[in-house]
Amino acid sequence: MSYIRALRKGWEEGRFTGDHRLFLLYGASRSWEFGYQGEMEEHAREVHWLKSAATVSRPWEDAGWNRETGRVEDVLRKYADSWGLTRENSIAYLCGHPGMVEHCKEILRRHGYPKEALREEIYWVPERKAAA
């Protein structure tokens, strides 16, 4: 959210022209876990350089949710395709659960994204399993 706020401020002050775009796909188990969804949607409505989509992975626990469902890695290809994102025109920044980050990297690698086009930030380092 801080990155979007900084870009927005720069755009409003004429320091960012909006010549590159930001596409944000974010997920949670249930919609009430989205901390900044309202603000995110407001920015996406008001600036041309931001598109966003939210998905919940446990819609059966969230009866009021009527939008995208599934894990981020389940809908990544759909949104990458609909937004026209390719290895030639984009860099992926994956942030969150280590399993999600790894699955999304694998999906993007299979679609030809080179290692240099994949950035990551995981929320914690998973414990190593003891050798058997």
Report on the structure:
With about 130 residues, this protein is of the alpha/beta class. The protein has one domain (about 20-120): 3-Layer(aba) Sandwich (Rossmann fold). The protein is about 35% helix and about 20% strand. It has helices at about 1-10, 35-45, 70-80, 100-110, and strands at about 20-30, 50-55, 70, 90-95, 120. It has a three-stranded parallel beta sheet, sandwiched between helices. Strands 4-5 form a two-stranded parallel ribbon. The model has no long low-confidence stretch (mean pLDDT about 95).
- Supply the number of structural domains: 1
Mean pLDDT: 93
Helix and strand pattern: HEHEEHEHE
Strand content: 15-25%
Q: Structural class per helix/strand content?
A: alpha/beta
What is the count of β-strands?
Answer: 5
Give the strand line-up of the largest sheet: 1-2-3
Rounded to the nearest angstrom, the radius of gyration is 16 Å
